[in-house]
Amino acid sequence: MDALSVLLQNVHLFETKYYRLNGTGDWSFSMDRQDCILFYVVLSGSFCIDVGDEIRQAKTGDTIMLSNSHHHRSYAVNHNGNSATSLDDRLANCINNTLDLDSGGDANVSVILIECKYDKEMVRPILSVLPSILPELNASSGARFEVVDVEIRLLTLESQRERMGKTAVINHWASIMMIECLRTYIESLPEATDSWLGAMKDPFLTKALTVMHDAPDYNWTIHGLAEVAGMSRSSFAQRFKDVVGMPPLTYLTDYRLRLAARYLRLQQHSISRIGELVGYASDSTFSQAFKRIYGISPKAYRQEHFRKLINKS
After folding, report:
1. Can you give the pLDDT at residue 191?
2. Average pLDDT for the chain
3. What is the rounded distance in angstroms from the CA atom of residue 62 to the CA atom of residue 139?
4. 86 Cβ neighbours under 8 A, 6+ residues apart
5. 110, 210, 229, 302: least surrounded by Cβ within 10 Å?
6. Average pLDDT over residues 181-187
7. 280: how many CB neighbours lie within 10 A of its CB?
8. CA–CA distance from 27 to each of 40, 61, 101, 105 (Å)?
9. Rounded (5°) CA angle 47-53-58
């Protein structure tokens, strides 16, 4: 399994929502979404997306992923600059997942908007190094665009029917779109980059990342990871730190504890078993390591998450 696959195997999108937006005339809207990943798929026409530090024009055939844009504005290409109306309440009340953005005039765009929740702890390292707007997938992307095109067709078909497993299917298709956008972005990174995702393209470091994510419970050492990477111990340690931004064992500890936090939230294993799954030989060492990062014990973390779920329901 390659490094990106193992990196994403515990990254899951959920509560995916799907909308069809039709714009006519000089329309404009703003959105403010917390802890969401958004996808815009342009079926026809073109429009602009403004996230504050970047403006992107999207056109027919483009698929754009917004990874870090809690607040952004979208508007018709010929927009006159008037203030944008909030789309948040209108989406909650739209009929049949379709919303007409009508300000008079001719139809100028038809867009699919996909909104997904995500596990903050598992996705945080990835989102922290991504641009707010990822490079778009479009027809010039060749086979990549064909993959996304099939996904959108299936997503559209699934959203129009009421069948068992509908929510699971839509969540999975959204996850595939995210993976396609991520790998296209990583493949486009220059050789010299300050993003740790560049390690995904490094022929040596990618081997070490793969085994750390694939077997976090193993007693990895710098020497063992260097052997996997096919490098000397010192060269590996320095190269990993230069590219990823932290020493190998610091990265491993961070991943182990984020994974442990996920297991605690899922409540599928005992705390002792979770400690074993992420490479800790005793409950006390696991609890101490977890508390150093999260400020509370694994037991308290699980109880706090459970209380939040009860209050939310």
Report:
1. 74
2. 84
3. 7
4. 29, 30, 31, 32
5. 110
6. 85
7. 21
8. 16, 20, 6, 10
9. 20
SS3 readout for 130-196: CCCECCCECHHHCHHHHHHHHHHHHHHHHHCCCCCCHHHHHHHHHHHHHHHHHHHHHHHCCCCCCCH
Cα gap 29→72, rounded to integer Å: 9
264-271 mean pLDDT: 92
Which one has a higher pLDDT value, 137 or 291? 291
Q: What is the per-residue pLDDT for 158?
A: 67
pTM of the model: 0.79
Per-residue pLDDT, 100? 86
**Dihedral class, residue 33 (left if φ above 0, else alpha if ψ from -120 to 50, else beta):** beta
pLDDT in tens, 202-219: 889 999 999 999 999 999
List the domains of the chain with CATH numbers.
3-188 (2.60.120.280), 202-312 (1.10.10.60)
Give yes or no for a contact between 129 and 195, defined as CB atoms under 8 angstroms apart: yes
d(CA 16, CA 36): 9
Model confidence over 82-93: pLDDT tens digits?
677 888 878 877
The yes-or-no verdict on residue 104 having pLDDT over 80 is no
Determine the Cα–Cα distance for residues 264 and 308; give it in Å rounded to an integer.
13
